[in-house]
Amino acid sequence: MSDAQPSLSRPITLSSHMPDLPLVVWMVLLSIGLGLAGGLGATETVAAFNTGFGRALGEFALILLPSFTLAAALSRQDVASEAAGRTAALASPVAGAGMICPDTAYAALSPAAGRYKLSLAFGAYAGFKLLYPAGPLIVAAGLGAANATEVQPIVLLLCGVLLTVPVWAAGAMWGRFATRTGNVAAGVSSVATDAEDQKSDGRLWVTFAPFVVMAGLLTVGGLVGRTGIGVLDFLLFPKGALIAAAILALLQTPAAARRDCLDSAVRRTGSLLLVIGAASAFGAVLTGMVALDRLVPPGSGTLTLLALFALTVLFKLAQGSSMATFAAVAPVAAPIVVASGVDPIAAVFAICLGSFVAILPNDSYYWLVRRDALEHEKSEISVIRILAGGALVQALVGMALLLSVVALWP
């Protein structure tokens, strides 16, 4: 396998003359610069920044902290040490959503995937983007739609499942026909006996029990509604169900590793809250400077969805990280969604689908899959074609389905 090496003679581009700053720093500078350039005084600019920064942090803290706790707990379980390849591939979307990270899901399941590694890669990627409680819940919170009465968690869950199946299939088919060896990855295929398959399936059911519990709580909550009992209502609420799932995952984790899981969750949550706060502040300043209701005509559902899709593509291409893209783009897109009057559920999934584009070398997922499933590929151009092309196909298939449903069922 040959990793990409930095060139000794780098081409002169616009980015070569720009400072290499983290996304959060760019957001802060742009927020302050936009306010001052737009005629706001120093006090008004700081006030707008403060208001925007803290607007959604509480929502995200209650989502990200249990989500990353759940992810850390699952990563410490031997999810797929003896699982058959098909079982690992079929579990990949659930793993991607449940672990709130396609990298972690792929790393956990790939030892058993064998010749299904590329299918596993696209499945984990699709699950993380489209299945509750990963992409849809994070984006909905950023848009302010998580608490909207017209957006029910069970609807987000069902819509995500309906989109995930064809999107995942599109990626798997692309992977099969884009490689000379089909979806056979380098390495030793996983060979398991019937007894081993049954044992692996049993372990997978136990491992993913927190998601079964969470789905059950959300289903009951959607059917029953509010009961008037505070504790019960909280458990049937998305954040309560997520916390319950995280606690169950921690209980399945050895006692000695539980504190490490919580510490990991706190570190990951803290860094993302800073990005989210800066993006929210930028969105607040931008809203105060630009009359978005004049830029986005009411009722233009299709155009607004395409604009949200394109906006997310730009964030993803610039940032690389899918999670940082979710965190940054949703607060910026929120005023557009409000001004346009577009269906909030459709807006959530337009952003989720835009984040598929693309799996490139500035994404850690690229190198994880490249060094495992595509180790036999010697050309980086070929790897980019396979991974970026597959993610693009997934995004276009999903967006075509979303627009068709919106057009046929307004």
TrEMBL record:
TM segment ranges: 23-49, 56-75, 130-148, 154-174, 204-225, 231-251, 272-292, 298-315, 322-339, 345-362, 383-409
GO cellular component: plasma membrane
Source taxon at top rank: Bacteria
UniProt-recorded Gene Ontology molecular function terms: gluconate transmembrane transporter activity
InterPro entries (UniProt xref): Glcn_transporter (IPR003474)
Keywords: Membrane, Transmembrane, Transmembrane helix
The protein's name: GntP family gluconate:H+ symporter
